[in-house]
Amino acid sequence: MNRETMADVLEEIALMMELKDENPFKIKAYRGGAEVVRNYADDIVALAAAGNLVGIKGIGEALRDKLHILATTGKLPFHENLRAEFPSTLFDLFDIPGLGAKKIKVLFRDLKVASVEDLQMACEQDRVASLAGFGPKTQANLLESLQRMRTYAKQFRLSAVAPIIENFLDLLREHPETLRVAVCGSYRRSKEVVGDIDLLVATSQPAQLTQYVAGFPGIDHVMVHGDTKISVRLSAGPQCDVRAVSNTQFPFALQYFTGSKEHNVAIRQRAQDRGWTLNEYGMLPIDSTSAPVPPICEEAEIYRALDLDPIEPEMRENLGEIEAAERHELPRLIDIENLRGTFHNHTQASDGSHSLAEMKAAAEDLGLAYLGIADHSKSSAQANGLDEIRLLAQIAEIREINAADDTFTIFAGSEVDIHKDGLLDFEDEILAQLDYCVASVHSAFTLDEDLMTKRIIRAMENPHVTMLGHVSGRLLLKRDAYAVNHAKIIDAAAETRTIIELNCNPRRLDMDWRWWRRARDKGVLCSINPDAHTTAQLQFLRFGVNVARKGWLRREDVVNTKSREEMAAFLALPKHLR
Fold first, then answer.
1. What domains are defined for the chain?
2. 28 and 1 in contact (C-beta within 8 Å)?
3. Could you tell me the pTM of the whole model?
């Protein structure tokens, strides 16, 4: 049992209860519980198994009991009994735009539609149009949606949407009637993958702006086109919604459309407690007895009006940030400007595309003062891993480069494979000659959680292992994480003084942001590493900083904010003294 499976069970219960027209408050409780399970920073599966969920916001007594059963037995009779009432394929219909529980219920009841394939056939046979609440237009829209589902993916990595967002923002800024622009939604909150792109523009001529957007490059299909909102499907896959608001409405719309939903619900309740209504259009007194709302021109002023310190977008997940803002205890989050160097980068010696000199030059162009090279070790044959002879030769080459330049340092490292038994790919006498060592799992992903966790901890106990690479091995939208106990890994890192990397390659973004607060509080240092295999991939650092901010990390929590001299002195210390 893992947290994703546990959350999926709660989501399915909510869906099935919705289909059965159950109490909406119960439905909301299960859906909210799923969100808590997905985002809770600690090992919620272990807590559920131990019956230690008391006091966790959003998990009531009934949910606690069900999560305990789920965590200890791997199944939940309540869920299984509900599921038995419906075909399993029915739930795929919820992924189709325009279909909610009410319409799916009608399709299932009247046409026996229980799968995407059933719906496709029913639409093609013209049977959906005759249903109450549907009609020919809805049927045509459903057929179009089904076609698009096959064509477009539902989620996108940050690296896929970032260039689109930057280009669209630049285009919006060029329009003479644009006053302010911003990206909102999950991208602004630095979620690891995004679905839709949400853009906001302040203007006194909203109809002009939406018409202007309709002509942007890369648009495959205009879905909705109004005077204040346009939704388009991009050739690259994602949907992009652009909303045009007045300059007065802009801060409220920015806060609202940034989300998260849970954060916004709590913020709106806080406004209501003060006698105000808050939505995407503004904040107003509820009635004549309410206190006046202070003037608000910027998003931060919404929070100040609610007696909160301004909350950074990355933190807005309703995971304690509001309480911290009330107590004036929000951390000062790391900024990209704080980074002085980075580690875990590859060259042509293994599976990289550029030479040492080219990687060094690219790092200098970014304003960095040092760069850690960590080509693969010999067991990663698929990546042309270095054996002892090639590694020692690379170390010698790095020393020569450093001797010729006293303004920039290359740190000689290796990304050393962790074998199945937790031993490393090189003997200690080789590791001792490195400036640093990244230990990573690249094989035997199917070990159970206990064995995988022990494997990694054994590697961290080696005094020459400086940092742990991509903790969970996940490849976003391609490969799930292997089973590993993050809490135990973090505790072991604290005990062994092992740094944990935030691998900011957008395919990984690993360790997951939900675990960084625990690591920070345990005194575990983070290294924001791009795992760059090309010079251009050094720019992945910006994604890493954003995810670090989402994990509440400060400058002092990230080791590669140290100066070049501080970093050299730090790495020269015995591991237990760092």
1. 3-83 (1.10.150.110), 88-151 (1.10.150.20), 156-247 (3.30.460.10), 253-326 (3.30.210.10), 336-577 (3.20.20.140)
2. no
3. 0.77
